[in-house]
Amino acid sequence: MEWLIIIFILMFVITPVMWLKPSPRQKRQMALRSSAAKQGVTVKMAKPPLHHFRGTMPSYRWRYAQDTPGPDFMLVRDSNASEALAPYHAGWRWRIAPLRPLPEAASIHLQTLLERLPQDALVLESSEYALTLWWWESQTAERFTTYLADIEPLKAALSGLSDRPPAKSLGAGGAV
Description:
The protein is α+β, with helices and mostly antiparallel strands. It is built from four helices and seven strands.
């Protein structure tokens, strides 16, 4: 009887410790986010730009240089897009199309990336500040690194294609 009580007390003490231990999925996500951060990617949990979505979703953000802002556009995977949105490529639709057509090099890099992204990647968004991928992190850090070969050239091709006119610098004496 004493042994049974001792075992029960030990289980009572060990159980909360087991709850604090990260699951295999959490370990994979931590490794993925750490690897992405080392590659210069900003990872953030935020509300994605999807209609009727509750909660937050991981977003991976590649910043454009301040002096070369990017264009504004948003692509949504067919599974989360309305039929009213214009189709683009490989099961993706424009929610916000770029104001001017993208250069051929940028279009090729964009289409290649869209073909390679995993099924849980739902939104690819570009603003003047960053290129952002909204996805559920289904891949490992090693697999994610392979996407960088497509994302980095795309970011470089989109840099400087801002939809906003550049700010005019003030001349000497403050006159424009």
